[in-house]
Design brief:
2 copies of one chain form a homodimer. Chain A is of the alpha+beta class. Chain A has 9 helices and 8 strands. Chain A has 2 domains: 39 residues, no CATH class; 186 residues, 2-Layer Sandwich (Alpha-Beta Plaits). In chain A, helix 5 runs antiparallel to helix 6.
Chain lengths: 253, 253
């Protein structure tokens, strides 16, 4: 049996869990009539990606944690702290909801998972549990979609906020590829995530990204040569990292 | 009916959900024989705090989101990026597990909830859903416990890591009190959290905290005068915040 929709990145209608298939070669129905008995036993689609089931992480749980090569993406709203001081809470929470939803659509369209949301920011993983041959490029394309889809929402806000400089409001993205540890790193909580130096480097890059910028590590750029071609390089001194990092800067189209 | 153990901060054995009681005055059994039928209907104890049930957040869901005065605590391992480059992944993930577990024990002991874990860092909320008369002091006491309980675990690591300067390994904590929006800010995920300027200020303070330091905002210090008495003040210029912030610095005992 072959997963019906696999290979077609971004189809939001996989019939079996793409994660379980890629990790264990087990077909778990998540849509259609065959999914009903599974759902009765609590096997539902994951909130991290609607093309996988919650069971896709069980493979990791059993092994405690696994090392996997993956691309990590961090995104947040630049100027959110400034914004949160000037905006009423209802509009602020609507903004975060819109931002998270548009990010999720972009990440799912390229087979990534939305692993963490913390305040306005979020973290996505590409290449686990759904395997992606070119996960570096998938993450960059998701980042471009994020920038594109969020610009409109943020632009409509700017006109209503007096005295907020343009360069302060927008989205920043950081991307890095490397080996990460995937598992649950808390004994009291089923909290599946990735940790390791590669995760922290991606987070550091994001913190340095200006409005509309996607900062890509040398490792990711080396894997996604087509997408990184012709982009500007920027030398960065990142907190906790001894050597300077030559990030490639992709700008919003 | 009165919650049997309420008022005794940190008892890990509340018979009814302290959150549902404080928010809605509804007694939901979470321990003992009366809890069994509720458990059969999926009402289980929350992973954010074992003295509340998952239902405690339903109050917020129904209202979409609520504004609440709360104290927000951020903690992470200082030097984690450096550490992650020098340590093998298995030991690194064990370290994160130990850190998260000890933080959780300290936060629960003072009636807070562990709301988010992201990489090595975590975010806790005090005063929701369990009401705490002096939530500023509760958060500071939890931070002291975190510093105390994590020192031992991190110290045992230092001896095994050549060339890692002492000042690079330890825990940093940031605390701020203010109005936050509490709810689910994502339409695709049941992801209960707090957002707002107060959350971001707490995160910024934590990012400036050195090893063994607890940085407290002026708002928190003003509420917890006894605990903040005699502490050093430090002027900080925080990203995204126009005016300088006079943080009080509590050191590890």
């Amino acid at each position: 049996m072959m997963p019906a929709t696999h290979g077609n990145a971004g189809q939001n209608n996989a019939i079996i869990c793409l994660g379980c298939w890629d990790q264990m070669h087990v077909p778990i129905p998540i849509r259609g009539p065959l999914a009903l008995p599974f759902r009765a036993f609590g096997i539902t689609r994951s909130k991290m990606n609607p093309n996988i089931c919650e069971r896709a992480f069980r493979y990791v749980k059993k092994q405690n944690h696994v090392t996997s090569n993956a691309t990590i993406l961090f995104a947040d709203i630049r100027g959110f702290t400034t914004l949160s001081e000037r905006m009423d809470p209802v509009r602020l929470s609507n903004l975060v909801r819109i931002f998270h939803d548009r990010c999720a659509q972009a990440i799912w369209a390229h087979d990534g998972i939305v692993n963490k949301q913390m305040g306005d920011g979020l973290m996505a993983i590409f290449n686990f549990p759904i395997r992606i041959a070119d996960h570096a490029s998938a993450a960059i394309m998701a980042a471009r979609d994020i920038q594109e889809h969020c610009t409109e929402a943020l632009d409509s806000l700017k006109s209503n906020l007096d005295g907020l400089p343009d360069h302060l409001l927008g989205v920043g993205v950081g991307i890095h590829t490397g080996d990460v540890e995937i598992g649950e790193f808390s004994s009291f909580r089923s909290d599946f995530t990735a940790i390791g130096g590669a995760v922290n480097l991606a987070a550091r890059l994001e913190s340095q990204a200006g409005v509309g910028e996607i900062l890509i590590s040398p490792a990711t750029a080396a894997l996604a040569t087509e997408l990184a071609a012709g982009t500007e390089a920027r030398m960065l001194q990142l907190k906790g990292i001894e050597h300077q990092v030559a990030a490639q800067v992709l700008l919003k189209r």
